[in-house]
Amino acid sequence: MMPPVTRTNLRLSMLLLPGLAVVAAVSGSAQRAGKPGATTANPAEATARVVAAAQAVVSGLDEAGKAKVQFPFDGPQKARWSNFPTGIFERQGLRMGDVTPAQRTAVTTLLQAALSADGYRKVMEIIRGDEVLRTTDGGRGPRGGGPPAGRGPGGPPPAGTAPAGPPPGGGAPAGGAPAGGPPDQGRGRGRGGRGGSLVFGEAEYYLAFVGTPSTSTPWMLQFGGHHLAINLTLAGRQATMAPSLPAAQPATYTFEGKEIRPLGKENDKAFALINALDEKQRAQAIIGSRVADLVLGPGQDGRVIQPEGLRASAMSTGQQDMLLEIVREWAGIMTDAFASPRMAEIRSSLAQTYFAWSGPTTNGSAAYFRIQGPTLVIEYAPQGSVDHIHTIYRDPTNDYGAKYAAK
């Protein structure tokens, strides 16, 4: 593992957020005070707040900007997302490097409305990490979003599954469609087309509205770039963030004297759980095959895998609580009004939820884990080291708001 990147190596251009340097100060007390990102217990009110913020973004754009940000709900943009950086994957939408300060402020307000305080922090730290990547090694070598040196795509699949999924970095299998999009939709000339130079940093994050922002009919807020894909589908009082991909590279860096670990809680809570299991439980949780990357990552919509590992019904109450706290790190990225009912849904089927582990059990090691239940799949997959992490969050029953669109 390389040492944390220091503040002296990092020059933030502040392209995305006026308040990026103080993101850690966003707190529950600020939310309760009704500031942007405020939590509300009423999902309908939360949706209305997100819609109003989205409409404010649109109203601040010229006609060209509006054309860039808006897509039909049933079109291909919904599934157009990837873990790859610009230069490998071509994103569409409103590019953060092209917006004015007033437009940046509107996007900030929107993200704070849609995400919880911790979710907003996490997203901003992932983006800041990509800025670190841009200003240090520029993504060259195994830390650049592609396969670690000496390793091919994926890894041995879990028992009972099909061959390994997309190659490390979040792309599609060789010869297939680019990650998260139909054939040829992610390729081509211009910014982000295959064959161009890799581009990192906070300018390379994109916002899109899939469907018209509405308080009643389904639509999606899509925001992402390298190592980040947030796909938040809203439909009245209901919302889902599946599928979404929060990742990190570097996974640890230093900013203004503080160690930043965008996915540190996910890592630490999982290691705490695997080490809280007794010998028999741990033997069930640890699967025999090595898993080197996400099985259900970008480009794997609709794929089904069999649950493996230790069933939560075989855990103590305390261990079950630890499992739910890991899940909350993903489900809780959404604002609390949406996250609370989602956590209740996951808790209701906890007995049918599995915890699987592949790799060492000492914290500080690179280990893969998966949490899988009737309405949930979470994967955490280090890419050859603890400094490059991929994760995925899915709901096999409601990816892209499938339940809402069917009504």
Count of distinct structural domains:
1
The secondary-structure element order is HHHEEHHEEEEEEEHHEHHEEEEH
The unreliable regions are 1-14, 17-39, 139-195
Proportion of residues in β-strands = 5-15%
Radius of gyration: 20 Å
Total helices: the number is: 10
**Assembly type:** single chain
Total strand segments: 14
Alpha-carbon distance between the two ends: 49 Å
Give the structural class.
alpha+beta
Overall helicity: 25-40%
Query: Please, what is the average pLDDT?
Result: 83
Shape: globular
The biggest beta sheet is recorded as: 7 strands, mixed
Q: What does this molecule look like?
A:
Strand 13 (376-382) and strand 14 form a beta hairpin. The chain has helices at 28-32, 43-59, 63-69, 101-114, 117-135, 264-276, 279-285, 317-331, 336-348, 402-405; strands at 70-71, 94-95, 206-210, 219-225, 228-235, 238-240, 245-246, 253-255, 258-260, 310-311, 354-358, 368-373, 376-382, 389-394. The strands form three sheets. Strands 1, 2, 3, 4, 5, 6 and 7 form a seven-stranded mixed beta sheet that branches. Strands 10-11-12-13-14 form a five-stranded antiparallel beta sheet. Helix 2 (43-59) runs antiparallel to helix 4 (101-114), helix 6 (264-276) runs antiparallel to helix 8 and helix 8 (317-331) packs antiparallel against helix 9 (336-348). The chain has 407 residues and is α+β, with helices and mostly antiparallel strands. It has ten helices and 14 strands. It has one domain. Residues 1-14, 17-39 and 139-195 have low confidence and may be disordered.
